[in-house]
Amino acid sequence: MTATEPAKFDEMHKPDGSVREAYRGYDEWLSGQNDGWMRRKAFEAESFFRKTGITFNVYGEDDAEERLIPFDMVPRIITGGEWRRLSRGIEQRVRALNAFMHDLYHRQEIIRSGRLPERLFRDNAAWLAEMVGFTPPGGVYTHIVGIDLVRTGPDEFMVLEDNARTPSGVSYMLENRETMMAMFPELFSKVKVSDVSDYPRRLAKSLAACAPEGANDKPSIAVLTPGIYNSAYYEHAFLADQMGAELVEGSDLRVIDGKVHMRTTVGFRPVDVIYRRVDDEYLDPLTFNRDSVLGIPGVMDVYRAGNVTIANAPGTGVADDKAIYSFMPEIVEFYTGEKPLLPNVETFRCADPDSLKYVLDNLAELVVKEVHGSGGYGMLIGPTSSKKELKEFRAKLEARPENYIAQPTLALSTCPIFTKKGLAPRHVDLRPFVLCSPEGVDITPGGLTRVALKKGSLVVNSSQGGGTKDSWVLED
Amino acid sequence: MLGRVAHGIFWMYRYLERAENTARLLAAGQRMALTRGQDMADQEWKSILTTLGHRQAYEEHHDDYEGAHVCDFVLRSKDNSESVFSMVENARTNARACRSAITGEVWEAVNEGWMTMRDLLARPVRNSNLNMALGAIRRGSTLARGASHGSMLRNETYSFSRLGTFLERADNTARILDVKYYLLLPSLSYVGTPLDTGQWDNVLRSLSAERAYRWLNAGRMDARSIADFLILDGRFPRSLVFCYCEMRENLAELAQVHGSEGTCHSAMREADLRLTGKKVEDIFDQGLHQFLLEFIADNQKLAGAIAEDYRFVA
C-alpha cells in the first residue's frame, strides 16, 4: 500500500506531532517512563496472559493448539463525548436489528414495503424456517451484539460489521483492563477511565430479564460451550465463572417433561436460560444437524413451547450477512423512523450488475468480502494483493457475484503500538458489546480494540495475526 | 454441581496426586540405585515399574532396566500413556474443562505446573537434573493442593477434590507397600542387616515417611512398626488410615449437602471395617499381601460407587 493509500487519521498524534486531547493524560504519564522498564512490562504482560490461560485455538494449526492473542500496552482512548455519540448510534442500530429480526420471522413488512429484496433472506443459510411465527421470551432476539466500528477522522465513526449471532472477544475487553491495571496502577489514578469490570454482572442481569415466563425470581442460567477444543473456550469458561452460571456441554443437558435439565450430582435440575456459544446448526440434532453431539436433542421444541430462553435466538445470524448489512441504513430508518446516527461503510452489492461492473473495473482499489464470511477469511484486499490474486478473485466474482460485496479501502484510523523502535502507528477497529433485554439496551463503556500488528496492514482479525488493546472511555 | 464437573474435579486431583507420588517413588529409586550394585539397582527399577503398573508397557519397548530408560519412560515417554507428563497434562485438561468450578488461584497453579513440566520434560532429563525435576513435579502438585486449600469454597466441589486426592493416595500407598510387602514380613530371617534397613528406609522414602517415622521411633527400625506406621497411624498423612479418615469425612459432607447417602457410603463403611480398631498383628495374621490386595480392590469399588452415585457420566 503505497501511492494509493489515503491520508490516515492517527488517534493519538496530530499530523504536526502534537498529542490529541484524549491521549494527553496518557502521554504525560508515558513520557515519565523509562524505555527499558516499558519493554520489561511488555514481557510481563505476555507471561501474565500465559499463566491465566487466556489463549485461543487456531483452526488448522496442529502444533500451536493454544495461542495468545498479542496484547499491546498502549491503550486505545475515546473521550466521554465521543462515546456518548457512539452509544446513541449503537443503541439505535441494535434496537433496529431486534425489530428487524422480529419482522423477518413474522409479517415481513420490510419486504412487503419493497425496502428489502426477498431473495436476501431466502438465499440466506442462517435463515431458519423453524423460527417463523415464533416470538422468543421477552421479544428479544439479539441478547448480545457486537458492533464493529471503524474510524476515519475526528468525528467519523462507521459500522463495518454487525455481529448478532455469537459475538466473541468480551473476555479480552475485561482481561486487557485487568492486565493494564495490574501493570500500571499509577496510570489509572492519573487518568479516569470508565469501568468495564461489571460486564458479567450486567450480562447475567440482562439474561435473567429474558427468562421464560414461569421461571422463578432467580432463573437458572447456563453457558453452553462446544467444549475445551473450541477456539473461544477460554471466554466461555470465563463468562460462566464471572456470572456464577453453570458452564455446560451438550452432553450435560437433556430434555425431560418439556423442560431443559442439566445432569447434576443430585440429579436433573431445570435450566431457564441458555447462553449458547454453539452455532444454530449444532443446537438440536433432532431439528438441525443430525450428527451434532454438541447440542441438546429436542431443545427446539422446548424453545418453541416458550419453556427456555436461547441467547442469542436461533436464526439471528441472518443479520450478520454482509448483503443484509448493506441495507442497514434502510433497516434502521424503517424500524426507528429516524435517520441512522452511525453510517455504514459505502458498500457495493455485486449481485447488482452495475455495481459488479464497477467492482471488477476497480478491483485493485477495493476490499471484497464474502457475504456469509467472517473472521477475515475469504476476503480480498485489492491494494495489497498481487496480480495473480486479483485475477483469481475476479474469476470467483464473475462466477458467483451475489456471493460478494465490495467496499472502498478505508483510511482506517491508527493508534500507536509499542515496537522495539518505540511507538509506531497501526490500524485499529473497535467492537463494543451491547446487551438487550425487555429492560432496555445496555452498552458497557469500552469494548474490544483489535489492532493490525503488521505495518500498513488493514486486517485486525486475531485469526489473521491481529492483536488487541485495552479500550478506554474517559470519564469527564 | 454438574456430574461431569464432579467427575473432572475428582480425576484432576487423582492425576495430581499420582504425578506427585510417582515423583517420590522415582526419587527413592534413584537413591537406592546409587547406593547399591547394578543387580539391586535393576531390581529396584523393576519394582518401581511394577508398582506403577507400567512393567508390561515398558518391556514392550526396552530390554534393560537402566535407570535413565526407566525414568524417561515413567516421566515423559510418548509410549507411556500414563507418564508423569500425561498426568500433569490430564490434570490441566480437566482443570480447563472445570474452569468455572475452581478458583483462579487453583487454575493458575495447575496451569503453571503444566507449563513448567512442558519445558522441563521437553527432552530427556539428565541424571544430574533428575532430583530437580522430581522436586518440581512434587512442588506442582503441592502448589495446586495448597491453592485449593487456601482459596476454595468448602462445598461439593471441594469434597470431590479431597475424595480424589485421598482415594488416589490410599491406592498409591497400598501399591507401594504391596510390591515391597515381603520386606515387611516379621518372619524375615536377616532382620537388622544393613541391606535390610536400607530397603526399609527406601520404602519409607517412597512415601516421604522417613523423617516422621524416625521422629516417632527414635532410631529403632523394624518391619512390624514400619507396617504399623504406614497402614494404621492416623497421624501420618499418607497412611491408609489417614486417607480413609479424610474420605469418610468428605463423604459425610456430601451426604449432608445432598440430604441422603448413596451406595458409596455403605461401601465406605465396609472398607472401614478393614482398618478400624485393627492392630498390625491382625493384618499379619490375615496375610499382608492378601490384606493389601483386598484393600486395593475395595478402594477401586469405592471409586466406582462414587462415580455412580454422583452421576459422573450420563
Determine the fraction of residues in helical runs of chain A and give it as a percent range.
25-40%
Give, in spatial order, the strands making up the sheet with the most strands of chain A: 1-20-19-16-15
Oligomer: heterodimer
Mean pLDDT value of chain A: 91
Instruction: Please provide the count of β strands of chain B.
Output: 0
Question: Globular, elongated, flat, extended or rod-shaped: what is the shape of chain A?
Answer: globular
Number of DSSP E strands of chain A: 20
Number of helices of chain B: 16
Computed over alpha carbons, the radius of gyration of chain A is 23 Å
Q: Bin the strand percentage of chain A.
A: 15-25%
Spans of at least 5 consecutive residues with low confidence of chain B: none
If you compute it from the alpha carbons, what radius of gyration of chain B comes out, rounded to the nearest whole angstrom?
19 Å
Head-to-tail CA distance between termini of chain B = 14 Å
Through-space gap between termini of chain A: 38 Å
Structural summary, described in words:
The complex is a heterodimer of chains A (476) and B (314). Chain A is an alpha+beta fold. Chain A contains 15 helices and 20 strands. Chain A has a five-stranded mixed sheet with strand order 1-20-19-16-15. Chain B is mostly helical and 314 residues long. Chain B contains 16 helices and no strands. Chain B starts with a helix and ends in a 5-residue tail after the last helix.
